[in-house]
Specification:
single chain; 331 residues; mainly beta; Immunoglobulin-like; seven-stranded mixed beta sheet; four-stranded antiparallel beta sheet; 3 helices
């Protein structure tokens, strides 16, 4: 007789095991679909200039007199397989505390940012694998002050923003001026650093150069030769910077002079002084001064106590007993 077929309940575990072995080999629907874009999935940059077709520009540069309308074009590239919806706006630019370039949010852009307009192209749909060129204008008010007005074109999608720098200059008198403030020295030896602040007092952006001169009690101290400060200082902005000073002495009192220059005739100086003492010498010196101060204070209290003590009254003189004359006579 042929063997009886196994019951259905006994076949169920075998079927489940076979299904589990086959599942990893079945490609998922997500893998068959379009590849996901990495990051924002688009780029924004200045369109190539008409004078040099195909040449890339690192930023926009626009200049005009008050009351004019300036024009340029922004290139948006979507290399992905998904459509991108990008919104565009103009924004004021500023220096962060450490000198970085940043843009303000819409509610805080009250300078030249609102001068930038995109007309009906404020929101742009870019098909997959497409490059779109979007024109925009900069309307300079008739009352605009001469000088540089730092702004940027901001492209945004899904919470991600990318700003493209716009060097906007209004024709007129250009004033390059700055000041150096709050010079201090921190640390000692090879770890010593100089902290200072730069303030742009003019109406044009500055590329500063810094020189550090140092003179101690025993002569000149190695400072820092003139070098470019890695900051573009925008008009009206203040930045706080740190300068390494590997040539700081171990034992000396040093007078520092910081000289900052920039194209256009800007020049400023600031001075500071600092003591440099080894930790051991500083500790023994402090202990000696503390002991000397304590001794002087104790002596002062002793002298003061003696001066304030009332003079002692003389003791009363006791009357002396009467003296008897010895005559040798019998009584």
């Amino acid at each position: 007789m042929p063997p009886a077929p196994p019951p259905r309940a006994a076949l169920l575990p075998v079927l489940l095991l076979a299904l589990a072995l086959l599942l990893p080999a079945v490609p998922s629907a997500r893998a068959d679909g379009p590849a996901a874009a990495t990051g924002p999935g688009w780029t924004a940059e200045p369109a190539a200039g008409s004078g040099t077709p195909g040449a890339a520009r690192p930023y926009f540069y626009l200049q005009g007199v008050p009351g004019t309308v300036l024009e340029d074009r922004l290139a948006l590239t979507n290399p992905t397989d998904q459509e991108r919806v990008i919104t565009l706006r103009g924004a004021d630019a500023y220096n962060t505390a450490d000198g970085a370039f940043a843009v303000r949010p819409p509610r805080e852009s009250k300078g030249a940012g609102p001068w930038i307009g995109f007309g009906a192209a404020g929101t742009v749909r870019i098909p997959p694998r497409t490059r779109a060129v979007v024109p925009f204008t900069v309307t300079v008010p008739p009352t605009a002050a001469p000088g540089d007005h730092p702004v940027a074109v901001v492209a945004a999608e899904g919470g991600h923003e990318a700003g493209v720098r716009v060097h906007l200059r209004v024709s007129g008198p250009q004033v390059a001026a700055l000041t150096v403030e709050d010079v201090r020295v921190r640390g000692r030896g090879a770890a010593a650093v100089i902290t200072y602040a730069l303030v742009n007092r003019g109406n044009v952006a500055l590329a500063p150069q810094l020189t550090v001169d140092a003179r101690g009690l025993f002569g000149d101290v190695p400072g820092r030769t003139s070098r470019a400060v890695p900051v573009e200082l925008l008009p009206g902005q203040r930045v706080e910077l740190t300068e390494p000073w590997p040539g700081a002495p171990v034992l000396d009192r040093v007078a520092l002079t910081l000289t900052v220059t920039a194209p256009g005739g800007a020049r400023a100086r600031a001075a500071a002084s600092a003591w440099f003492l080894p930790w051991g010498v500083a500790g023994w010196t402090g202990a000696g001064l503390l002991a000397l101060g304590g001794f002087a204070y104790a002596a002062h209290l002793l002298v003061r106590g003696r001066r304030s003590r009332p003079p002692a009254e003389p003791e009363p003189r006791q009357p002396s007993a009467p003296e008897h004359e010895l005559t040798g006579a019998a009584r």
